[in-house]
Specification:
Elements (H helix, E strand, L loop, with lengths): L5 E14 L2 E14 L3 E5 L6 H8 L7 E10 L2 E2 L5 H7 L4 E4 L3 H4 L6 H7 L9 H14 L5 H4 L9 H13 L5 E5 L7 H17 L3 E6 L2 H7 L2 E6 L2 E7 H6 L4 H8 L40 H5 L5 E4 L2 E3 L9
Parallel strand pairs: 3-8, 3-9, 6-7, 7-8
Antiparallel strand pairs: 1-2, 1-4, 4-5, 9-10, 10-12, 11-12
């Protein structure tokens, strides 16, 4: 595998969830690529399918999920066809995940040291002493003070920011090629968010892999990521470099999403801007462009004809009939 080969490559992925109301089409024909040394941001409103995409990449979807089409490859391995033993080998060693809430991903009845030593069970080359030394190095790497003294502590004895740092250290213990961070700063205050972003930026230089950073916080994505993928109602509507997409958005949804970012508001107001309307019913997605019910410039064509990808440049594209005109 060369430095330019994709670490994560998702093609034409469609995922549905079976429910009493019908099949919820959570993802439809999604493409996403993350290369070695790259941080890719995945952005969208709540309910857009971000976490579903992250879980599909590791085949951790719930029992009522159905993968209807597409492929997911991590370091060239077809994740969707791997047997159970192959998945166990993949998770942790090749791909690792940091979840939104570290209190639900860390075992509350075991000490941090026990958990971090136990997850190295696959490595038969190290003694328990060697594994403990690796744990200490990982905790120091993410900035946990007095790491040796805190190995006996349980998760509730750490702050939210410290728990998330521990979760990141655990994810990186086996030096995975792909780190998926699913909204790792959601439960943290602004100061701790900045610390986690700084940590991930530093780790990007230290690990020889790719990071998929899932977030609804545009400021964090702009500060951390190289490229950004905009997801709306289960479809990718725009992707490109962070600089291009955030400075000159070519899809109306991207533009309206950026307009709602509090950091971009110059006038003092008691109300925050919102995108009019609601996410569509994904049991029966709209015909034509999925965004047309909320789009201020939708035309008759948008209501009946689904837009194909419009290549704005070699590294930039948008799924909009008018992307070439600046949307």
């Amino acid at each position: 595998m060369t430095a330019t080969d994709p670490v994560l490559e998702i093609r034409d992925l469609s995922v549905a969830f079976h429910s009493p109301a019908g099949a919820v089409q959570a993802l439809r024909r999604v493409d996403l690529t993350a290369r070695r040394g790259e941080i890719v941001g995945l952005v969208g409103e709540s309910g857009s399918g971000k976490s579903t995409l992250a879980l599909a990449a590791t085949r951790l979807l719930p029992a009522n999920a159905e993968i209807r089409s597409g492929t997911v490859a991590v370091c060239g391995q077809d994740v969707l066809s791997l047997p159970a033993a192959g998945l166990r080998q993949l998770r942790g060693q090749t791909v690792a995940m940091v979840f939104q809430d570290p209190m639900t991903s860390l075992n509350p009845v075991l000490s941090i040291g026990s958990q971090m030593i136990d997850i190295q069970y696959r490595d038969a080359t190290l003694s328990r002493t060697g594994k403990r030394a690796r744990v200490l190095a990982a905790l120091e790497r993410v900035g946990i003070p007095d790491a040796a003294q805190r190995l006996a502590c349980h998760p509730h004895e750490f702050s939210g920011g410290m728990r998330q740092r521990i979760a990141i250290a655990m994810a990186l213990l086996m030096n995975p090629a792909l780190l998926i961070a699913d909204e790792p700063t959601t439960a943290l205050d602004v100061t701790l968010q900045a610390q986690i972003v700084h940590l991930l930026r530093r780790l990007r230089r230290e690990i020889d892999g790719a990071i998929l950073f899932v977030s609804h916080d545009l400021g964090l994505v702009a500060e951390l990521c190289d490229r950004v993928v905009i997801l709306y109602a289960g479809e990718v509507v725009e992707e490109g470099t962070v600089l291009d997409v955030f400075h000159t958005p070519r899809h109306p949804y991207t533009r309206m999403l950026l307009d709602c970012d509090p950091a971009r508001i110059d006038v003092v107001s008691r109300t925050l801007p919102t995108i009019p309307g609601d996410l569509p019913d994904l049991v029966q997605p709209p015909s034509g462009c999925v965004f047309h019910p909320r789009c201020p410039r939708a035309e008759d064509r948008c209501r009946v004809e689904a837009p194909s990808w419009n290549a704005v440049s070699a590294t930039r594209r948008a799924r909009c009939h008018f992307a070439g005109e600046g949307a």
